[in-house]
Design goal:
This protein has 473 residues and is an alpha/beta fold. The protein has 16 helices and ten strands.
């Protein structure tokens, strides 16, 4: 499977069909809208605006579809859902094109002409884009159903439920896309598993991260027996930091509480665990907002940051900026940037968290921390894509190791980019010890389960209030 080639197919299809839709719209307007009102009318393509539209407007459609997330997950598309997305995108895009580029072009006051033009443009765009996207998606779906292509997968589970699920998936007339590499067991003391008759035993679930990395696993199905259910939380905690799809066999309780969502009529019913995920359009919009706000803040605040840098430099010995390795998305380390708020030898005795009346903090550093202004250089981390405006605060590996001993759920936070601010930061402030870090963790976990652009805006507003009122800890 070549993801870039598949995306290229959709991009070329969308560009050409959008250009052709604009061509048809031009012919329609000249032939059926303008013709009755213009004397000595003559159809000609020697029109600069027509050719500019043919070239540039399709790029606008590509941008809109990109924001809608239509170029993500290109191998896992639902054709009906995609048609619905194209319908909404076509409607929004046509309204923008009509009111920005077309409305003032009319030389008559016949409002019915407006509706006809808008209706034709929408119909041409939706039908052309929709048909060709449907054809591309159908061709890919056929390859998946025929087992020509598939996603590297493993089963965590080894006995009756796992074996039954494997047989159901493998004997299905149309494949769901699983390409099973092997299975992981829960009990390390056994060496005879029912699923061994079908799949290779790769070890116990403790090796999950190693197996995911080695075999480039994309999907994991948890199929445990009832007596093994206490291991589910451990498994989820262990693998959450990886970029894989997690699914689990539902029981009757899951079904009755509405946790089972039907995504396919033909395939096995599984719960997909989406901790920390947001919709495609929100994911893209979040990144756009990260870049826009960061550039704005860094540009408008440049004189003030220069003044802050001079004060930091002249009030204590040491560098202006403080950099430190933190752990980010999927456990990848990066260098966080801050205005230095402590003396240069603050951690000569080893890593330590700050606390009230901390003697290591400089006089100007106390003000910077109260107003959170020491965090502002992290907007550069946001621009580099290492951080987001809102997300769980990144920690050092030294403290993460201690947190995980008390709360293994901390690994969930590595599913998302760390942020300059977070709900935990707003609610709790700086943690002075590992116990307080664990206490703050629950706010970050709740944020992850309710992540959205709206929630991010609420957290940003409260952060601004903390800065203005100087309530930082």
């Amino acid at each position: 499977m070549n993801k870039k080639n598949e995306i290229f197919k959709f991009v070329i299809s969308d560009y050409l069909t959008s250009a052709f839709a604009w061509f048809l719209f031009f012919i329609f307007r000249k032939s059926f809208i303008e013709f009755p009102y213009e004397f000595n009318w003559q159809l000609t393509l020697q029109n600069d605006r027509f050719w500019l539209g043919m070239f540039f407007i399709p790029f606008g459609w590509l941008l809109l579809y990109g924001i809608q997330g239509l170029y993500l997950n290109v191998f896992r598309k639902s054709r009906l859902k995609e048609l619905a997305q194209v319908f909404v995108s076509s409607l929004l895009g046509c309204l923008v094109i009509f009111f920005v580029f077309v409305l003032d072009d009319f030389n008559n006051n016949q409002y019915i002409a407006y509706y006809k033009s808008l209706g034709f443009l929408f119909s041409a765009q939706f039908v052309l884009n929709g048909i060709f996207r449907f054809l591309i998606t159908s061709a890919t779906a056929k390859k998946i159903h025929n087992r020509t292509i598939g996603f590297n997968s493993i089963i965590i589970g080894s006995n009756e439920r796992a074996s039954k699920l494997f047989n159901e998936l493998e004997t299905a007339k149309k494949s769901a896309g699983y390409k099973f590499i092997g299975f992981l067991s829960v009990d390390p003391n056994k060496d005879n598993y029912l699923l061994s008759n079908h799949l290779k035993h790769l070890g116990t679930y403790e090796k999950a991260n190693e197996i995911i990395s080695k075999h480039k696993i994309e999907e994991i199905i948890i199929a445990l027996e009832s007596k093994e259910h206490e291991a589910i939380q451990k498994i989820l905690t262990l693998v959450q930091a990886n970029d894989v799809k997690l699914k689990i066999i539902p029981d009757l309780y899951n079904i009755l509480t509405g946790q089972v969502k039907m995504n396919s009529i033909l395939h096995a019913a599984l719960i997909e665990i989406n901790s920390g995920t947001i919709s495609s359009w929100q994911f893209i919009l979040k990144r756009v907002l990260d870049i826009f706000i960061s550039v704005t803040v860094l540009t408008l605040g440049a004189p003030f940051y220069i003044l802050t840098a001079l004060i930091v430099k002249t009030t204590s010995k040491g560098s202006i900026f403080f950099t430190q390795e933190r752990i980010g998305l999927q456990g990848i380390p990066f260098k966080i940037i801050k205005f230095r708020s402590m003396y240069s030898d603050a951690e000569k005795n080893g890593p330590a968290l700050s606390k009230d009346d901390d003697s290591r903090i400089t006089s100007i550093g106390k003000f910077l921390r109260k107003t959170r202004l020491d965090e502002t250089p992290q907007f550069f981390n946001v621009l580099k894509g290492e951080m987001s405006l809102v997300g769980p605060r990144p920690e050092r590996q030294f403290f993460i190791d201690q947190i995980i001993q008390k709360a293994p759920q901390y690994n969930y936070l590595h599913k998302v980019k760390p942020g300059i601010t977070s709900w935990g930061q707003v609610k709790y402030g700086y943690a002075e010890n590992v116990n307080e870090m664990v206490e703050r963790l629950k706010f970050d976990l709740i944020y992850m389960e309710n992540r959205s652009i709206l929630v991010d805006f609420k957290i940003l507003i409260h952060t601004i209030l903390v800065v203005i009122q100087g309530r930082g800890k």
